[in-house]
Amino acid sequence: MVFTAGAAPLDDDGTVAVGDVAGQARRAMANLATALEAGGATLRDVLRTTVYVATTDRADLLAAAEAVREALGAHLAPSTLVGVTVLAHPDQLVEVDAVAVRDTWQEPGPPDDAATLDG
Q1: Fold designation for 2-100
Q2: Which residues contact 14 (CB under 8 A, 6 or more apart)?
Q3: Rounded to an integer, what distance in angstroms lies between the CA atom of residue 47 and that of residue 77?
Q4: pTM, full prediction
Q5: Of the candidates 94, 5, 6, the residue with the CA atom closest to the CA atom of residue 54
Q6: Cβ pair 2, 77 in contact under 8 A
């Protein structure tokens, strides 16, 4: 399983991407995809997301949700959408975290080449 912390809409230089809620949600999803890839997963492997939006406007919440749905494509993972007062970075409007399961599985325990106790 891959657990991510909140993916923020940060540009390559670490600044918050300029834009509205939908644009920031798209950038956050691109950053989430990069983080998942580092963990050996993709957006298709996402089990669930939580989307945080700094707003009290329902239209902003729906815009963020739509951007997340677009990024996930046909793979519609369950998602919780939360309106919050403020997020970590100045001008940040959106943050997305996710849980994913990679499509490869390894049984817990010692590696296959580990020495056994009886031999």
Answers
A1: 60s Ribosomal Protein L30; Chain: A; (3.30.1330)
A2: none
A3: 6
A4: 0.84
A5: 94
A6: no
Do residues 90 and 62 make contact, with C-beta atoms less than 8 angstroms apart? no
Residues 83 and 56: their CA atoms lie apart, in Å, by 6
- Checking if the pLDDT of 109 tops 90, the result is no
Say if residue 102's pLDDT is above 90.
no
Pairing status of strand 46-54 against strand 2-3? unpaired
* pLDDT band with cut points at 50, 70 and 90 for residue 41: very high
Angle at 74 between CA 72 and CA 75, to 5 degrees: 60
Strand partners, 83: 53
Can you give the residue ranges of every domain in the chain? 2-100
What token pair was written down for 3? 């657990």
